[in-house]
Amino acid sequence: MRRPHGGGSLSSCARSSNRLGTHVALIAFLSLSPVYACDCKAPPVPEAARQASAVFTGKVVERRELAPSEFGRRRYQIRFSVAEIWKGADSKELTVYDQNPAGDCGGWGFELGKDYVVFARSYKVTKGFTIRVEGRDVEWPDRWKGALPIGRQMLISEQCTRTAGLGTGAANQTIQLLGKARRTVTRRQDISGR
Predict the structure, then answer these.
(1) Distance in angstroms (rounded) separating the CA atoms of residues 79 and 98
(2) pLDDT at residue 159 is higher than 80
(3) CA distance 17 to 90
(4) What is the CA 75 to chain-centroid distance, rounded?
């Protein structure tokens, strides 16, 4: 019996097919793996306020969709009508950038017309960073690259903060622990319609 391509070794075509099969199996396995939700705990209110660049209550008056990330994640520019300010700029309106919440704990998911207590941090858009994977340098893009210019300073909110929808027990407790606001821009009842 004659062995193909001498000595029983696999042909390059067969090896490629074998590698392709391995890659398909790996992709199928990974697609069946569970997707984990963000697993973090917000710090106590005083610590969260120290870590934040801005702490305020406000109503979402505009939710503008920006270009999606390189991975297809939706990103938004959120404009708030501000009611009370504990920390940050004294302004009647503040803009916070947000993305669809995901397992990386980034993004909060603000909804148009809803009121929130917001803990936002300052963030500067970069080109990205390099990580080492299996001995190779891999470029990882900044999550805001492509939506905003590199070097842009902005406010973002994330899941692992004390940000919460007003009227919830978490928001009520957070506001109570924050104490008196440094400045009241608009009464909370005026922006919420309550």
Answers:
(1) 10
(2) no
(3) 63
(4) 9
